[in-house]
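Project standup — Tuesday

K.O.: blocked on the structure for the chain from last sprint. Re-posting the sequence here as requested.
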Amino acid sequence: MTNIGIRDLRDGLSKHIADVRGGATITVTDHGTPVARITPIGAPTALDQLIAEGVVQPPTHPKRPAPDPIVADISLSETVLADRR
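H.V.: unblocked you, prediction finished:
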C-alpha cells in the first residue's frame, strides 16, 4: 500500500491509476492524514478477506427489520425536564 499526497496524486494521476490497474492500493493523504483509498475494481474487501481466512463468519440469518417508532404525546424536551425534577 502506497501513501500519496493529493498534490502528488494530481500531478501523476495517469501513473498512479496504472499502478492501481496493476493491483496496487493507494492511500490518499491530506497533510499526512489518510482521507481516501484507491483500490482495483474486484479486489476483495477487508471483510471478504477475513471471511476467507475464517476469522469471521457471515451472518446466517437476514437482518431483522427495525421496530416501529414509538409515538409519544409529549416532546422529548418535556420528558427530560420532567425527569430532572
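K.O.: great, moving the ticket to review. Helices lie at 6-11, 13-21, 46-53, 76-84. Strands lie at 2-5, 26-30, 33-38.
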